[in-house]
Amino acid sequence: MGGNRRKLGARYALAAGLRLAALAVPALTVTFSASIAGAQDKTELSKARAQFQRAIELEQAGNYTSALDTFRSVGEVRMTPQVRFHIATCEEKLGRLVTALGGYQLAFADADSVGDDFKAEVELAVTRLQASIPKLVINRGSGGEAAEIQLDGVELGASSVGIAVPLDPGPHAITAKAPNFMPFSRTVTIAENEQKNVDVTLAPEPELERVSVATPIERPRSKVVPYVIGGVGLASLVGAGVLFGLRQSALSDLESKCGAARQSCPQSARGEVSNLSLYNTTAQIALGVGVVGVGTAVGLLIWQKKHPLQSASGMMFVPSAPNALAGVSWAGRF
Fold first, then answer.
1. Going along the chain, which residue ranges are E strands?
2. 81 exposed, middle or buried (CB, 10 Å; 0-12, 13-18, 19+)?
3. Which of 97, 191, 195, 257 is the most exposed place for a label (fewest CB within 10 A)?
């Protein structure tokens, strides 16, 4: 009996030991992982401190672009108020005053964790920059009451119109558009400690109507066609005269062979009869063509003289685009 109890106790002890071992393994894993992470953090922090020192040297040497990139790399490891302050200083030196002001203000919010001297330095930078940042006021003028206004390609909301907007020094593009109005575009250059006001005014689109002040010029029509028709008519009249002469000659020959009444014509007179008939018919046709041709040519010449061609030569005044001279566009026409 006692032997059985000893065996049961040994089994319970073994099971308990296995459970404790199972619980201990995750705890050891977490502890080991934490040790590795701590080692990595120390390595990164050591590297970041070296980068911070290098960035300070670049900043003091006036290489603000490289210093800014290096300070930002330091901030990816640990962003402290001092790192924010130096990033803002580089931004300010590069002319990005609005971004620099935001960096100074973030550094000032955490400055208590560094010390009073640092906080005073940051506060002085904020005050100085707030006074030197230029500002631009954009107002809605005539035609711009409902216009879509953009500043440097970014649409301005209603709360940004009519108030002083802080900007970096330099040129800034203002554009606006509205239905049935000409687009507005203007570039404003602003310097430090300066404030400018711009009124956005849009001109109505020009109407499509054109007012013509062209003066018609009369010029004669071409006389080629009447002259050609008249020439054909005259040639036909001349031909008709010749044919009538031949007709008379054939008639005289026929009368000499057949007599005046042509009651008895010999067999040899058939040629004269045939020629007489041909000359008579063609002469009448030629006469008709000649009369019609000459009459048509004369009629065309008279009609062209009374109805000459008209062409306009002058200027067309059109409501112009904004860049047109004196607000009027013109176009010649010949």
1. 135-140, 148-151, 154-155, 164-166, 170-177, 184-190, 195-200, 211-212, 215-219, 309-319, 328-333
2. buried
3. 191
pLDDT (tens digit per residue) in 145-199 = 999 999 999 999 888 999 999 999 999 999 999 999 999 999 999 999 999 999 9
In order of 6, 100, 191, 238, the CA distances from 12 in angstroms are 10, 70, 86, 153
Name the token pair of 180.
């049935």
Q: What is the DSSP letter of 144?
A: -
Q: Any idea which residue has 């239905």 for tokens?
A: 179
Hey, what long-range contacts does 307-310 have (CB within 8 A, 24 or more apart)?
307/221, 308/218, 308/219, 308/220, 308/221, 309/218, 309/219, 309/220, 309/221, 310/216, 310/217, 310/218, 310/219
Strand partners for 138: 198
What distance in Å separates the CA atoms of residue 76 and residue 69, rounded to the nearest whole number?
11
Amino acid 24 reads A
Q: Are 150 and 135 in contact (CB under 8 A)?
A: no
